[in-house]
């Protein structure tokens, strides 16, 4: 091969390598940007007076005097709305039956939407669920609801050869000539005064318990549950894994049994996580009966089994990479094998062992399938440390899935879902960064 | 290297069979050794195997106490294997086994009831590559005494100081005992390893090519150190460097393909070898 071709090949490989790295970076960006922009909305948004009232009532947070002023202002702005409704209620009774029937269902729509916007209307029975006790808490939702109030969604079937097209018709047209006619214009005009939106930094999203299945409130229970499960898994898997790695590298003879154990370990690493989940249910809960039903303990044990192979492998690699000369030096001084392992080999292998451990910790924090049947509940309170043996817990990974698919108001609370994803990613990232720093510190200490 | 040679002051001129003359450096006049010369490491029909391969073939030799014995020979001749079998370092190799007997201080090294951990406490070893632990200088030296149950801070500090002084390293490191040992230069690290071995008060020092990874200046320092320690400890040193063997040792063993070809006082072996093979080797006809 002549020098020209060789250089050309070198250059083209450089180009290919650079391109693939750029693609990877772009993919990472494409994943992270929506998560961050979506997640930030859970923490920072235009909050309405309803949100501030909610925070005050449920968490006793906020400036009471200022809230009273706001409440009075918004009440004053809402008064005409209630008056429109009261007037129309009387008018409706006096209308001829046909006309009344025609208007009644649209009027229900109007009342429902106003309930969504402003909370319970005068004359409504006090709602039981928290989510119906308050109006919209976030301004961007208020704007959507306003649109629902002002327009009816209609479908145009005029061209039978095509699919029907959607269009919006002003709702006010239905009520022309009635006492409700003025309401629509008034609400459109004065919505801001009724809800008094202002930018809010809701740090409570991290530290508050959730209210009414995540409709309001924060995700502390999930964050705490994630920590419980991940740290619990580490408590079991880390010591066990390191001991197993020491056995494999230092004590196991090179025979059939050892190679069987090794390949069993590798196979375990490749088992899908849902299988671990089912195994956890069948073994830890149904057979061993570590708890009556789902519990943090059962979930931790299941996660521990799942991350065990990774920890063993990482610790094994780390121990094997300790120079043989350290071992010789220690044995040569008259140290026993055990002493050599504890005082020379393990300290030197520590950076690698810790890295493997923290990567596993991150994985345990993020896994969903193993905890579905063993530990996770979609709605739950924060549990004390003493309850981990018996109580299940919400956890970020499972609740993200739940909010994305099964939650009855999934569409209403996308911001909570994004916020949870951001919290989970932050936790895992934080763990990885601390692993890197810890490793760097220990390596520095070892290198001198 | 040249400087050390000048210091010894003695140069013998050897005329080989081909008529060319070569210079051989001879040991300087040595200090007298008291109560030495007793058989310390005694091999009787001692062979070492790796699986079926016989790496060292029926050696019969007595290493005398308090003297320096050098082991020379071409690569793969079994000299390191022999040295490492004295403190059972080869036990780490699964296929390793021996026949015949090797006694240290009258105790059978490979005896059925021999505790290799106790044995190694009496034998200090320094390896080819400096191998300090990734700990502080102090902790490196204190490691051995701690194994022996010395935990008193003051006693440890004393041992560290005397060991470092014996290894001629004290003045260079006394202000940074709490620094990591891996920050020292290669030569200093190797002297630290000597100090670490001395800290457990061994009866014998095994040096396995201790200067092969060092520059000439550091090598000279290690050689001076061996001279310093001579007479206090039995020293066995494996070396590739024949000039080094002739400079530092009282006795020399020459191994070739696992066989102990010749074992004689260094002066005699280098000036008047009995065996043709020895002569060919020390005059550089093969290596």
Automatic annotation (TrEMBL), chain A:
SUPFAM superfamilies: MetI-like (SSF161098). This is Phosphate transport system permease protein PstA. The lineage of its organism: Bacteria, Pseudomonadati, Chlorobiota, Chlorobiia, Chlorobiales. InterPro entries: MetI-like, MetI-like_sf, Phosphate_PstA. The keyword Transmembrane helix applies. PANTHER family: PHOSPHATE TRANSPORT SYSTEM PERMEASE PROTEIN PSTA-RELATED. Keywords: Cell membrane, Membrane, Transmembrane, Transmembrane helix, Transport. It is a multi-pass membrane protein. It is found in: Cell membrane. Belongs to the binding-protein-dependent transport system permease family. CysTW subfamily. Gene3D superfamilies: MetI-like. GO terms for cellular component: plasma membrane. It comes from Prosthecochloris vibrioformis. Pfam families: BPD_transp_1. Residues 223-439 form the ABC transmembrane type-1 domain. The gene is pstA. GO terms for molecular function: phosphate transmembrane transporter activity. The chain crosses the membrane at residues 12-36, 227-248, 268-285, 297-315, 340-359, 371-389, 418-438. GO terms for biological process: phosphate ion transmembrane transport. NCBIfam families: 3a0107s02c.
TrEMBL record, chain B:
PROSITE patterns: ABC_TRANSPORTER_1, ABC_TRANSPORTER_2. Gene3D superfamilies: P-loop containing nucleotide triphosphate hydrolases. Keywords: ATP-binding, Nucleotide-binding, Phosphate transport, Transport. One of its GO terms (molecular function) is ATP binding. Residues 41-282 form the ABC transporter domain. SMART domains: AAA. Transmembrane segments: none annotated. The keyword Heme does not apply. It comes from the Bacteria. One of its GO terms (cellular component) is membrane. The keyword Zinc-finger does not apply. Residues 1-21 are annotated as: Disordered. InterPro entries: AAA+_ATPase (IPR003593), ABC_transporter-like_ATP-bd (IPR003439), ABC_transporter-like_CS (IPR017871), P-loop_NTPase (IPR027417), PstB-like (IPR005670). One of its GO terms (biological process) is phosphate ion transmembrane transport. PANTHER family: ABC TRANSPORTER I FAMILY MEMBER 17. This is Phosphate ABC transporter ATP-binding protein.
């Amino acid at each position: 091969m002549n020098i020209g071709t060789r250089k050309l090949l070198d250059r083209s490989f450089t180009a290919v390598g650079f391109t693939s790295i750029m693609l990877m970076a772009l993919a990472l960006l494409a994943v992270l940007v929506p998560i961050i922009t979506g997640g930030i909305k859970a923490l920072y948004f235009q909050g309405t007076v309803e949100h501030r009232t909610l925070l005050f009532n449920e968490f006793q947070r906020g400036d009471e005097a200022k809230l009273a002023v706001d409440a009075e202002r918004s009440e004053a702005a809402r008064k005409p709305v209630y008056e429109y409704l009261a007037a129309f209620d009387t008018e409706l009774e006096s209308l001829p039956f046909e006309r009344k029937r025609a208007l009644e269902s649209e009027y229900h729509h109007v009342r429902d939407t106003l309930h969504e916007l402003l909370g319970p209307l005068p004359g409504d029975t006090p709602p039981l669920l928290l989510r119906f006790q308050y109006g919209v808490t976030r301004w961007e939702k208020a704007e959507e609801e306003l649109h629902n109030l002002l327009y009816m969604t209609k479908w145009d079937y005029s061209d039978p050869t095509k699919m029907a097209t959607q269009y919006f018709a002003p709702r006010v047209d239905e009520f022309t000539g009635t006492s409700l006619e003025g309401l629509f214009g008034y609400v459109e005009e004065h919505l801001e005064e009724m809800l008094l939106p202002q930018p809010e930094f809701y740090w409570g999203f991290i530290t508050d318990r959730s209210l009414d299945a995540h409709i309001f409130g924060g995700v502390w229970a999930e964050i705490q549950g994630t920590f419980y499960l991940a740290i619990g898994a580490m408590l079991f898997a880390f010591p066990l894994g390191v001991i197993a790695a020491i056995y494999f590298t230092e004590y196991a003879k090179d025979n059939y049994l050892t190679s069987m154990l090794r390949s069993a370990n590798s196979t375990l690493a490749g088992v899908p996580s849902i299988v671990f989940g089912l195994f956890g249910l069948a073994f830890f809960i149904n057979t061993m009966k570590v708890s009556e039903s789902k519990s943090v303990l059962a979930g931790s044990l299941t996660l521990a089994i799942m991350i065990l192979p990774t920890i063993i492998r990482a610790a094994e690699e780390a121990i094997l990479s300790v120079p043989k000369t350290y071992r010789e030096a220690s044995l040569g001084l008259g140290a026993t094998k055990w002493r050599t392992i504890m005082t020379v080999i393990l300290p030197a292998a520590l950076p690698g062992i810790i890295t493997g451990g923290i990567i596993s910790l991150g994985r345990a924090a993020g896994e969903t399938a193993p905890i579905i049947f063993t530990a996770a509940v979609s709605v739950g309170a924060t549990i004390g440390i003493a309850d981990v043996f018996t109580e299940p817990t919400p956890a970020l990974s499972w609740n993200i899935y739940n909010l994305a698919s099964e939650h009855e108001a999934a569409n209403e609370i996308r911001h909570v879902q994004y916020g949870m994803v951001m919290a989970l990613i932050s936790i895992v990232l934080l763990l990885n960064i601390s692993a890197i720093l810890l490793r760097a510190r220990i390596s520095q200490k070892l290198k001198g | 290297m040249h400087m050390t040679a000048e210091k010894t002051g003695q140069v013998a001129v050897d005329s080989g069979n081909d008529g060319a003359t070569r210079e051989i450096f001879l040991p300087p006049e040595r200090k007298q050794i008291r109560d030495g010369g007793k058989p310390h490491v005694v091999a009787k029909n001692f062979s070492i195997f790796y699986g079926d391969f016989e790496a060292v073939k029926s050696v019969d030799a007595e290493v005398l106490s308090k003297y320096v014995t050098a082991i020379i020979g071409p690569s793969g001749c079994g000299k390191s294997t022999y040295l490492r079998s004295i403190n059972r370092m080869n036990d780490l190799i699964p296929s390793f086994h021996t026949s015949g007997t090797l006694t240290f201080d009258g105790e059978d090294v490979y005896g059925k009831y021999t505790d290799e951990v106790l044995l190694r406490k009496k034998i200090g070893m320094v390896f080819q590559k400096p191998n300090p632990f990734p700990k502080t200088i102090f902790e490196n030296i204190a490691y051995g005494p701690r194994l022996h149950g010395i935990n008193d801070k003051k006693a440890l500090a004393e041992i560290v100081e005397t060991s470092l002084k014996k290894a001629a390293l004290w003045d260079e490191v006394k202000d940074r005992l709490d620094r990591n040992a891996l920050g020292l230069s290669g030569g200093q690290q190797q002297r630290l390893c000597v100090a670490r071995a001395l800290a457990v008060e061994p009866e014998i020092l095994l040096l396995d090519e201790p200067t092969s990874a060092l520059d000439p200046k550091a090598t000279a320092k290690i050689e001076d150190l061996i001279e310093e320690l001579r007479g206090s400890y039995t020293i066995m040193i494996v070396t590739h460097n024949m000039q080094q063997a002739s400079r530092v040792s009282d006795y020399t063993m020459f191994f070739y393909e696992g066989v102990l070809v010749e074992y004689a006082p260094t002066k005699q072996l280098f000036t008047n070898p009995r065996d043709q093979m020895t002569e060919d080797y020390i005059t550089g006809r093969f290596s």
